[in-house]
Amino acid sequence: MISLAMILFASLIFTGVVVRTKSLASGRKGPGILQPLKDVLRLLRKGTVFSETTSFIFQIASSIYFVSVLMAILVVPFGQSKGLISFDGDFVFFAYVLALGKFFSIISAMDTGSSFEGMGASREALYSMLAEPAFFVLMGSFAMLTGHTSFHGIFTALHFSSHVSYALGVLATFVLIMVAMIENSRMPIDDPKTHLELTMIHEVMILDNSGFGLGLFTYAVNLKFAMYGAIIANFFIGDVPWYYAVLVFTAVQVLFAVIVGLLESFTARFRMAHNATFIFTLTSASLLIFFGVLLLMGKFI
Amino acid sequence: MLLCCIADDAAGNILVSSALVNCSQTLPSFTAQRLAFHKFEREINENFGIEYIDHPWLKPVRFPQNRATGQSTIANYPFFRIESEELHEVGVGPIHAGVIEPGHFRFICNGEQILHLEIQLGYQHRGIESLFLEKKKLLQRTTLAESIAGDTVAGHTTAFVNLWETLCGYEADEDLQFTRTLALELERIAIHTGDLSAICTDIAYQLGSSVFGRLRTPVINYFQSWCGNRFAKSLIRAGQNHFPFNETLAEQLLKMLDAFEPDFDEMWAEFHTLPSALSRLEKTGVVTKEQVSNIGTVGMAARMSSISRDIRATHPHDLYPTLAHEPIIKHHGDVYSRTHIRYDEIKQSISYIRRLLEKIPPENKDRKALKKPAANAFSISLTEGWRGEICHCAITDERGELVHYKVKDTSFHNWLALALAVRNNEISDFPVSNKSFDLSYCGHDL
After folding, report:
1. Tens digit of each residue's pLDDT (9 = 90 or more) over B188-230
2. What is the mean pLDDT of residues A131-138?
3. Which of A87, A275, B416, B427 is most open to solvent, judged by the fewest CB atoms within 10 Å of its CB?
4. CB-nearest partner of B203 from A118, A197, A268
5. Which pLDDT score is estimated for A163?
6. What is the pLDDT of residues B386-412, one digit of tens each?
């Protein structure tokens, strides 16, 4: 329960912190931290316009996408306390419930029949596919190390092993940050600020969404960020009282948001063709973790 | 009568040939010999209905009005097509997501790769050339010249006033020439800086986008404090100078440049060493020297591919003879070359401005009035705007009234270079290629 509450709280401010960081980095004052949230609320109050060429898929996709993210959040633990749902193999559930939401967002983009949205959908499908092995090698390695197959089991067991696990934690943080950037279509994979349909990934897929549906898609991005932030925070929380855990969690989330903001301020987006290569290198980083785990377990001679 | 004017860069003169033709006549085309003529012959065909036998593709240049035949519209326009199950077409525009002008781009793509781009413009056609004949007052014509392309006010107005003064047999005083030269160089700095910002925006490099964007402001604001308009409208007038330059203005300008340069250099040093930015710019949107000379591009779009083509050097006007301009040449023809040219040209313009400010010509208080344009005259004027060569021509009748006015903006035939540049590139690199050319829609559409 505390995990859900904390992630919801973090999702309220996450994008605000990112936007503020970017504004400060470019010498502007920037909007208030809550501005992105207010934008979402404004969208949620608006009516929705559906294109005549779309079918019911387009109409349900935004809700399914949003709910899939919420479902995924339910299995994310918080320090020593479990998520609302926790069972063996829940990280597989986590990955595929997100994939389900993504599947619907992809087919709803195809549903509009727009050539832009088709391009965005094909990019999104490709990049999600390439990011999948990175996530599973990462989580699988930790499952092997700890002997548990649920998020909660893995994270509680992780902190009772040696300090090397913290080193693995740092590497895992890098992979997770990058997976989060890919999943949320942020820099350096995609530029969320651009107005150029030809270079977009996520934004171009939701071009036809408006009002309530657009609000759900927009808020789902905040939730996803907070969710990945929570997973990253779990690597660092350890066995501490809950009030310390809350502090660590908040610090990790804010730091994550600032890193995202700085990354988006001081680098240029990758060339589209380099994205695939880059995403695949995340799998090699995950493989490093895998070998690190083998080393820890003494499986290497 | 068909007139053909070709500038000879080596000799620094303009070759003019003419032929009497009948509009109903069918002619052999120059295009069959030389690609560079294709756009001009299409325009002649569109405006006067002259048919060419061996022109490869007489596709429309602009859409509505002023056409010999009013038949073709965008609805029945035959775009180039490829019948294939595997390729797909992406149509962009004419209305775009950003605040840019209307233009239709039709890509034929193999996945992410562009095989072919067809650019169809003409949505901004305002009939500028016929308005020049309809509007009889000089002031009206001057403001018309100012409105040909909003980003090239100094360029087009200088081309117009130089043309007009020549028609009237008027020798421009040095202070008038000074104003024009200074305005052209300031405009170059302002637009190039804005373009650097836009290139950064298109590759999602936020720091460059905001810093270059901020640096453009003091330059255009300087125009505001000089003549009351940030785009230098009302600054340049034939035979008049409403805003004479003086020591106070010079001081302000130097102060502005002194503040501009260090920030600009610092940002450039950061930008052109940033690996993620370079990987987007280098080898993107390459136009080879051969393609460039076939199309006959002018201005930056020629200088990016080892072709030295600069009116300031070959046909210098106003105070350019005293500056002895050396064109800046790059060799790769890619987005990076076009970006780097901008940096170098800004630095060069700043040094020219500093040299110009050393000797400010005094205002001529006792200026002669402009006479009426000469009768039965043909006059042509070339100006190097920030984008490249701008050409205005005028023909007068026996009473000294304009009977024909022709404007050729740099963009007119440079657009084809963009279409070739993006071939075999990723479609997501199109925006940055487009921005690196920064061609004008309304300058083309007139």
Report:
1. 999 999 999 999 988 888 899 999 999 999 999 999 999 888 9
2. 90
3. A87
4. A268
5. 66
6. 998 999 999 888 888 888 899 999 988
Q: Determine the distance in angstroms separating the CA of A265 from the nearest CA of chain B, rounded to an integer.
A: 5
pTM (two decimals)? 0.89
Give the integer Cα–Cα distance in Å for B341 and B327: 10
Picking from B200, B205, B430, the nearest residue to A198 by CB comes out as B430
Closest partner residue to B206 (CB to CB) among A22, A196, A198 is: A22
Which range is least confidently modeled, B15-29, B106-120, B241-255? B15-29
CB-neighbour burial class of residue B196 (10 A; exposed 0-12, middle 13-18, buried 19+): buried
- CA B307 – CA B319 distance, rounded (Å): 24
Interface test with A, best of B428, B432, B434 (most A CBs within 10 A): B428
Vertex B438: Cα angle to B435 and B439 (nearest 5): 140
Indicate if the pLDDT at residue B366 is higher than 90: no
For A77, which DSSP code?
-
CB contact under 8 A, A116 and B203: no
From the number of C-beta atoms within 10 Å of its C-beta (0-12, 13-18, 19+), residue B279 rates as middle
For residue A159, the tally of other CB atoms under 10 A from its CB is 19
Handedness of CA B149, B151, B156, B161 (dihedral sign): positive
Instruction: Name the residue facing A115 among B90, B207, B214 (closest C-beta).
Output: B90
**Distance (Å, rounded) from C-alpha B40 to C-alpha B24?**
18
Q: Which residues of B touch A275 (CB under 8 A)?
A: none
Please state the φ and ψ torsions of residue B47, each to the nearest 5 degrees: -80, -35
Phi-psi sector, B96: left (phi>0), alpha (psi -120 to 50), beta: beta
In this complex, do B207 and A115 lie within 8 Å of one another by their Cβ atoms? no
| Nearest residue on chain A to B281, alpha-carbon basis | A271
Beta bridge partners of B215: none
For chain B, the three-class secondary structure string (H helix, E strand, C coil) is CEEEEEEECCCCEEEEEEECCCCCCEECCCCCCCHHHHHHHHHHHHHHCCEECCCCCCCCCCCCCCCCCCCCCHHHCCCCCCCCCCCEEEEECCCCCCCCCCCEEEEEEECCEEEEEEEECCCCCCCHHHHHHHCCCHHHHHHHHHCCCCCCHHHHHHHHHHHHHHHCCCCCCHHHHHHHHHHHHHHHHHHHHHHHHHHHHHCCCHHHHHHHHHHHHHHHHHHHHHHCCCCCCCCCECCECCCCCCHHHHHHHHHHHHHHHHHHHHHHHHHCCCHHHHHHHCCCCCCCHHHHHHHCCCCHHHHCCCCCCCHHHHCCCCCHHHHCCCCCCCCCCCHHHHHHHHHHHHHHHHHHHHHHHHCCCCCCCCCCCCCCCCCCCEEEEEEECCCCEEEEEEEECCCCCEEEEEEECCHHHHHHHHHHHCCCCEHHHHHHHHHHHCCCHHHHHC
B128-445 fold: Cytochrome-c3 Hydrogenase; chain B (1.10.645)
Find the mean pLDDT for residues A140-158.
Answer: 85
Q: What is the mean pLDDT of residues A239-268?
A: 86
Where in the sequence of chain B do the CATH 1.10.645.10 domains occur?
128-445
Percent of chain B residues past pLDDT 70, beyond the cut: 97
Residue B74 has pLDDT above 70, yes or no: no
| Residue B392 bridge partners (DSSP) | B381, B407
The ipTM (two decimal places) reads 0.86
B206 within 8 A of A26, measured Cβ to Cβ: yes
Q: Residue B380 is which amino acid?
A: I
Å between A162 CA and nearest CA of chain B: 37
Q: Do B431 and A25 touch (CB under 8 A)?
A: no
